[in-house]
Amino acid sequence: MTAIEFNKQLISLHNSLKFFANTLTSNAEEADDLIQDTYLKALTNRDKFADNTNLKAWTYTIMKNTFINNYRRNVKASTIVDSTKDLYYLNIPRKEQQYTPESVLSTKEINASILELDEEQRLPFEMHTAGYKYKEIAEELNLSIGTVKSRIFFTRKKLMAALKEFQN
């Protein structure tokens, strides 16, 4: 196959590649970038394409592999290495979270509902949401683990009933 024939057949696949790229990325701009990368790789590796084989399958494979490699690269870029003794990997989003006026108001309403709870319900619940384990809460408040679990459970139920407008 000559270079001109190869290019014509490659260009004729544009609509199919566009559809496939949109299904992979779910974003029009990213899909266009993916198509462009696929064309570039297909043209630079034209010598690796075997004549009388399926060009569409070959380009789809290039596109799929490019998408996977880009995804893995983005995941690695957002992972940092913690230099503590245990070397944990932490995934930290690169974008700062944007707070809308609605989300700030919702947070205030939820916090107000939590503050309205009795102290014996509120304290275990707040400690649990702060990341304490049941055992730690039980030791700190001098309660049994079963009591801690039931208070947190019933507090959740009470808050869910009081904050129905925030549920999906």
Question: How does this structure look, described?
Answer:
It is a single chain. This protein has 168 residues and is mainly α. It folds into two domains: 3-80, Rna Polymerase Sigma Factor, Chain: A; 101-166, Orthogonal Bundle (Arc Repressor Mutant, subunit A), CATH 1.10.10. Helix content is 68%, strand content 4%. It contains eight helices and two strands. A two-stranded antiparallel sheet has the order 1-2. Helix 6 (119-129) packs across helix 8. The chain is elongated, with a radius of gyration of 27 Å.
Which helices and strands occur, and which strands form pairs?
Layout: H1 3-12, H2 14-25, H3 28-44, H4 55-77, E1 79-81, E2 89-91, H5 101-115, H6 119-129, H7 134-141, H8 145-162
Antiparallel strand pairs: 1-2
Descriptive tags:
168 residues, single chain, mainly alpha, 2 domains, Arc Repressor Mutant, subunit A, two-stranded antiparallel sheet, 2 strands, Rna Polymerase Sigma Factor, Chain: A
Which topology of the largest domain does CATH recognise? Rna Polymerase Sigma Factor, Chain: A
CATH class of the largest domain: Mainly Alpha
Any idea what the radius of gyration is? 27 Å
Specify the biggest β-sheet.
2 strands, antiparallel
Unreliable stretches covering 5 or more consecutive residues? none
Concise overview:
This protein is mainly α. The chain has helices at 3-12, 14-25, 28-44, 55-77, 101-115, 119-129, 134-141, 145-162; strands at 79-81, 89-91.
